[in-house]
């Protein structure tokens, strides 16, 4: 039998991933050593015994004389550690998303950086760092309204009880809580968490960064006190490390945080909760480009933990699994809090406004409603949909967006002269008039927050207008500052992009206006219908969170589009049916898998040439069952003097795409010219 070698990491940390040592695996230990196994090895000149973890197993030694490699000393018996599971997760990520083991390990292992002497409690740390303004005053004023444990309503109780029974019986099928905004999902999570920590195990709660506000953390803090720890991008590296150590050492049971909180080294993880499961922020941008839902599901199964997801607007992928019984679907159908009903929603056809001579960004109906709010001292939120911002072209008279005849995605404007399809490369010169109705009102949609603020101020001179965008929130905690000012009633109208529609409860808001709902429909991406539905549903959900009923007004050039109609009707299931039909027809995920390969380099010709080569070799070796689309220029073709090209591969079988990725990567590493280029893989 050929020898096998284990790559060992000694002091397990992000920094030491670049210092990995190889040892020979004695034949007697072959059966016991796996990825993640804890072993003891002789280390250094004196051959002192050290503990380490196996991160890779190979049949060769890298750049070293095999005869000089030392043997693994022994396998350390005992219970599986958190680090062992994280290494196994890293291995799975490397395999599934096509990265190196180093990249995967760096993703799951914490950056080691001790906090300075002050060892303050996490919540207070955040207060003094300006992350949670308002929390202190909240506590000083002795407000106890939030701290009492709410008794669950019947729907909530049913889910919590089913969970507890399953959990105690050792059943670990993931749960999907599909519940409208404000239906009390968070209360259900807390009940589940209570059950799991009561059984002596720990919990990770994933919340998209944008919804991870002090309000949210405060609710958990009131219920669980100092047993919580928090992971947030605004914490310093030292504070993050400190939070991870509190979890590792058993000083906390509950980690609340964005994506990277998944890698918290709890000794006995029992539950992972993932709120707002559909959020884009759950997709990692770096390598490996993992998806948090998939990684969380894997980690839960490695840990014997339950995985619970929740959303009012599930992703198509997850909902398809819930429908197929892979996840247990649980429903919450009614609002739980003070406001009992969803906002009434109206669709306004902007083409009609135009025909009747109203060229303003405010329809007559929206204007009337805003004036009513101003008269009654109620608040309005105006939402600008900025996705796909002005890179596509559409007709302001008939609403037609110029699309690719082959792909059903919008064409993207290049250099103000050409329209290009990013899926197939189809290119036409920019036309002067609308191909459908010949109108000359053909333009990009680009209207920014600042412009809308000016227009609102002009039209409603008495109104106090507040704007929330990158400019006004750049400061630390700026986001919270703007929102809390608005929540305190310091303005009548709040104008903003995506960030104003996610998860904030502002009871004074009785009107939400969506200025141009269509913008996100034309993004060059097959998921744009889904994104639009999600954004509109969330926007509508912002109105009427207090005692008074709310109205949501959706202004659009495409009132008949199913994403807009179903969002206005708050009908996820109908949206799901239509979107599913479209994805099946076009062979898009989740009904077909896609591997997106991006190559970038400063040498434009070389970049294009290598991409062509990859395309041809995939075609030749895997062509029979794999569709190869492209190469095409990336949506933003040139960035920092790097030219970027994309190739799409489609196959119903994910594993075949993984095989192709490995094949490409191997050839890539063997090719001299490729050192000057960067390759990235993205599976969906
Ligand atoms: P979701 O997470 O689904 O958006 P939340 O858990 O935030 O919903 O609940 C929305 C509001 O309803 C919150 O203010 C919460 O305190 C309140 N709430 C939730 N469940 C109940 C309940 N059973 N009784 C009274 N109020 C509730
Ligand atoms: Zn096309
Ligand atoms: Zn037209």
Can you offer a commentary on this structure?
The chain has 20 helices and 27 strands. With 684 residues, it is an alpha/beta fold. A seven-stranded parallel beta sheet has the order 8-9-7-10-11-6-12, with helices on both faces. It has a six-stranded parallel beta sheet with strand order 13-23-22-14-21-20, sandwiched between helices. It has a five-stranded antiparallel beta sheet with strand order 2-1-4-3-5, with helices on one face. A hairpin with a 4-residue loop joins strand 3 and strand 4. Helix 5 runs parallel beside helix 6 (185-198) and helix 17 (562-568) packs antiparallel against helix 18. The radius of gyration is 27 Å and the shape is globular. Bound molecules: adenosine-5'-diphosphate and zinc ion (2 copies). One zinc ion binds next to loops.
Describe the structure concisely:
Helices cover 33% and strands 22% of the residues. The chain is α/β, with parallel strands linked by helices and 684 residues long.
